[in-house]
Design brief:
Length: about 200
Amino acid sequence: HDKGYLYYSGAQGGDSWGTVDQSFLSGQTAMAAYSSSDTTLYTDTGLANGFEVVASFLPYNQETGWTGNIIGGATLWLVGGLEAEVEDGALSFLLYMSNTENAADWHQTTGYMPIRTSSVEMLTGSGWFEENPNQSVAADQIAQSTITPATQGALLGIFNDMRNIVTQSVDTVLLTDADPATVLADAEAEANTVLEEYNLLSAE
């Protein structure tokens, strides 16, 4: 950061998206880690401003090796405890929303990665990824991930709270002389406390 290799906007959580986008698309920074849903925005804005944007896999430490990455962003949920008729209807709707054609269309419209292998195959066959190579990167990276509990993604009711705790701990490490191990241990303890409180409140 002191040498100018890392741009820190000072924004956290949802507030950071706009500052990251602005710094990259204005040419202030050369690289940015961002949501696949911004792929179209980054690609098109780069072209409009006279430079090419190339998407790539997230970097990793070669000394420890690469296992994979997790998905994030929008999700579909079906609550428990519904009457059978309501549950069947809701499930049918979710399956319709996420079928091959709709998942492919959702990807092309929003930029979010297609959630079905069949959608990826359909988009590949239509030439979509050949014409829009940046759009295939997120799906390719996830497809090559080793299946582990970590890469299967988080399934917990305090996901946003936990993400904020982690983000704040990273900010602390970047901006102070605090020991990273101590900061992360404190973050783990705080996250576990929030999770325990959630579990108590959500217990049947």
